[in-house]
TrEMBL record:
Gene3D superfamilies: Aldolase class I. Keywords: Flavoprotein, FMN, Monooxygenase, Oxidoreductase. The active site is at residue 310. Belongs to the FMN-dependent alpha-hydroxy acid dehydrogenase family. Glyoxylate binds at residues 38, 144, 179, 310, 313. This is Lactate 2-monooxygenase. One of its GO terms (molecular function) is monooxygenase activity. PROSITE patterns: FMN_HYDROXY_ACID_DH_1 (PS00557), FMN_HYDROXY_ACID_DH_2 (PS51349). Pfam families: FMN_dh.
Length: 415
C-alpha cells in the first residue's frame, strides 16, 4: 500500500489504470475488436452482466469505528494452503487473444502474488508449460466435461501430475451461451483453433485423431459448407501457435474433433461419481446458482462450490451472482467452502462477498485487461491493486481480519 501511494506522490503513473472503467477502456484499445468483444461481452442483452454489478451496488457497507485496525490480517485458508488475500484467478480461456504471452504470463504473475491460478480447459498454452512457469505457485485445473470420459480422465491425471491442487468442474457451459457480440462479428475463437491447447497436447485426444474408432472420437458434427470452407482456409494458412508442428490437415481435424468432444450436454450428477473415484484432489463445482444444487454438491461428496454465472456469458436474465450467494451459503451450511465470482471489480466487492458468506472470490475480466495492456506486469499490478484496495476497505470498515467480516457489516439499499 505504501508503495502504491508513494509512487503516485512521486508523480509516477501506474502501469495499468487503477480505475476499472479506465482499465477496461485501455484493455479495449490494446486488443482487436474481436478479442475485446469476446472478453468483454456477455449473453443476450447482457442483463446478467448488469445484474452482477447491481447486486453489489445494492449492498452497502456500514463501517465501524474505533476498533484498532493497525494490524490487519487478510489471509485465508483454502484446501490446506494459506492465501495472502481471499482471492484467486478464475479460469479464463483463449488468453492469446489478450496477449501473446497468454497463460504463462498470468501464471508467473499469480505465483509472484501468491494467489492461485485456475488453468482453463480452453487455455492457449498446455497446462504443463504454465505449471513450469509458475514454480511452486498454487494452481488448480478447470475442466469442461468432455463427451469422452477417457479425455476427462487424461486431463485430470495431467492436472495432478503438474501440481494442481484442486479440480474445478464448470457446469454452466454444457453449451456456449447466446453471445451476441461474437455472433455479430462471426468470430468464435475455437473454430480458428485458438484455445484448444489442452486438447492438442493431450495423448488421448491426439490418439483419437489418429484412429476414428477410439471412444474419444464421437460422431463428427455436421458442419455447414461455409464452416468447412473456413476451416480449410485456416488449415491452409495455419500461423502456428496452439497447433504448432501439426500439419494443416491435422489442424483442421483437431478443430473438428474438438467440436465433436468438447462438452457433454447430457452431464448429470451421477457422472461426478466417476471423477470422485478417479482423483483424490478436492473437486469444486463452478456455476452453482440455486441453493438446492449447492446442497446436492455436498451430498455428492464435492469439496467446494463456486457460485458463478460465468460473468453473465451463459444465461442472460440469470440472477446476479452476489444475489444468489447467501441462499447457497445457507444451504451448504459451512460444510464446504463457497467461493463466488462474476462482477468482482474492487476491494469493496470482495468485502461484500465475504460478508455474505463467501470464503474467497474469483477474479475475471480485470486481470485479463491488465494482461492485454502490459502482459505479466499488468496482471501483477491488477492483483496488487485489488489486494491493497481490499485491505484498506477491510480496515476502514473496522475489521482486523476476515473472520470479523460478517453480514452485520452490510445493509441492503434500494436502487
Ligand atoms: C470466462 N470464464 C470461463 N470459465 C470457465 O470455467 N472456463 C473458461 O474457460 C472460461 N473462459 C472465460 C473467458 C472469458 C473471456 C471470460 C470473460 C470468462 C468465466 C470466468 O471463469 C468467470 O466466471 C467470470 O469471468 C467472472 O465474471 P467477471 O468477474 O469476469 O465479470
Amino acid at each position: 500500500q505504501q508503495d502504491i501511494y508513494s509512487k503516485g506522490l512521486g508523480g509516477e503513473k501506474p502501469l495499468v489504470p487503477v480505475d476499472f472503467h479506465e482499465l477496461e477502456r485501455q484493455g479495449c484499445d490494446a486488443m482487436s475488436p474481436e478479442a475485446y468483444a469476446y472478453i468483454a461481452g456477455g449473453a443476450g442483452l447482457e442483463s446478467t452482466m448488469r445484474a452482477n454489478r447491481e447486486s453489489f451496488d445494492r449492498q452497502r457497507i456500514v463501517p465501524r469505528m474505533l476498533n484498532d485496525v493497525s494490524e490487519r490480517d487478510t489471509t485465508v485458508n483454502l484446501f490446506g494452503r494459506t492465501l495472502p488475500s481471499p482471492f484467486m484467478l478464475s479460469p479464463i480461456g483463449v488468453l492469446e487473444m489478450a496477449h501473446g504471452d497468454a497463460d504463462q504470463a498470468v501464471g508467473r504473475a499469480a505465483a509472484a502474488e501468491g494467489i492461485p491460478m485456475i488453468f482453463s480447459n480452453q487455455a492457449s498454452q498446455p497446462m504443463e508449460q504454465v505449471a513450469d512457469a509458475m514454480g511452486d505457485g498454487a494452481r488448480w485445473f478447470q475442466l469442461y466435461w468432455s463427451k469422452s470420459d477417457d479425455l476427462v480422465r487424461s486431463l485430470v491425471s495431467r492436472a495432478e501430475s503438474c501440481g494442481c491442487e484442486a479440480i474445478v468442474v464448470t457446469l454452466d457451459t454444457t453449451m456456449l451461451g447466446w453471445r451476441t457480440r461474437d455472433l455479430d462479428l462471426a468470430y468464435l475463437p475455437f473454430l480458428r483453433g485458438k484455445g484448444i491447447a489442452q486438447y492438442t497436447s493431450d495423448p488421448v485426444f491426439l490418439e483419437s485423431l489418429k484412429n476414428p474408432s477410439q471412444p474419444g472420437n464421437m460422431a463428427r458434427p455436421k458442419l455447414s459448407l461455409e464452416t468447412l470452407k473456413t476451416l480449410k482456409q485456416i488449415g491452409q494458412s495455419w500461423p502456428g501457435g496452439a497447433l504448432d508442428g501439426i500439419s494443416s490437415g491435422r489442424a483442421m481435424a483437431a478443430v473438428q474433433e474438438f467440436i465433436a468432444v468438447y462438452s457433454k450436454p447430457s452431464l448429470t450428477w451421477d457422472d461426478l461419481k466417476m471423477l470422485r473415484d478417479h482423483t483424490r484432489l478436492p473437486i469444486v463445482l463452478k456455476g452453482i446458482q440455486h441453493p438446492d444444487d449447492g446442497r446436492k454438491a455436498v451430498d455428492y461428496g464435492m469439496d467446494g462450490i463456486i457460485v458463478s454465472n460465468h460473468g453473465g456469458r451463459q444465461v442472460d436474465g440469470a440472477i446476479g451472482s452476489l444475489e444468489a450467494l447467501p441462499e447457497v451459503v445457507e444451504a451448504v451450511a459451512g460444510r464446504v467452502p463457497v467461493i463466488m465470482d462474476s462482477g468482482i471489480r474492487t476491494g469493496a466487492d470482495v468485502f461484500k462477498a465475504l460478508a455474505l458468506g463467501a470464503t474467497a472470490v474469483g477474479l475475471g475480466r480485470p486481470w485479463v485487461y491488465g494482461l492485454a495492456i502490459a502482459g505479466e506486469a499488468g496482471v501483477r499490478e491488477v492483483i496488487a491493486n485489488l489486494k491493497t484496495d481490499f485491505e484498506l476497505t477491510m480496515g476502514l470498515s473496522g475489521c482486523k481480519s476476515i473472520s470479523e467480516i460478517t453480514p452485520e457489516a452490510l445493509r441492503r439499499a434500494d436502487l
